[in-house]
């Protein structure tokens, strides 16, 4: 899977939220100052070429939709991050993540619940 630029990721975020969208829907999703229509069109063309986005045509209008799930995209990046920066060690990554991101006690407890739940699933 190729990587998206930051600008392309922003478009994808809107598409993941909207599930499918015409150009006007995408532009509406942006805060002001909104990007130019030509900018979004260029980004969408690149994302179609990279096979992240496809579209259905309705007359002169295109309704865009994501071809890649958000979870698939980000899990690939997190796994790459663990591989490249933490010697392929998920525990090194978890240690860094929990100590360097200023998580609150509640957030840490929530993480612990998620981890405990995954441990139980693996035992079955």
UniProtKB/TrEMBL annotation:
The keyword Zinc-finger does not apply. GO terms for molecular function: DNA binding. Keywords: DNA-binding, Transcription, Transcription regulation. GO terms for biological process: negative regulation of DNA-templated transcription. Gene3D superfamilies: Penicillinase repressor domain, Winged helix-like DNA-binding domain superfamily/Winged helix DNA-binding domain. Belongs to the BlaI transcriptional regulatory family. This is Putative transcriptional regulator. It comes from Flavobacterium limicola.
């Amino acid at each position: 899977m190729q990587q998206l630029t930051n600008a392309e990721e922003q478009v994808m975020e809107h598409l993941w939220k909207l599930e499918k969208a015409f150009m006007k829907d995408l532009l509406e999703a942006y805060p002001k100052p909104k990007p130019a229509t030509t900018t979004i069109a260029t980004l969408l063309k690149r994302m179609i070429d990279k096979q992240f986005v496809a579209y259905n045509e309705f007359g002169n209008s295109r309704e865009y939709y994501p071809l890649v799930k958000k979870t698939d995209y980000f899990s690939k990046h997190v796994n790459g991050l663990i591989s490249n920066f933490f010697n392929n060690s998920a525990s090194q990554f978890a240690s860094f993540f929990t100590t360097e991101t200023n998580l609150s006690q509640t957030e840490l407890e929530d993480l612990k619940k998620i981890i405990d739940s995954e441990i139980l699933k693996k035992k079955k």
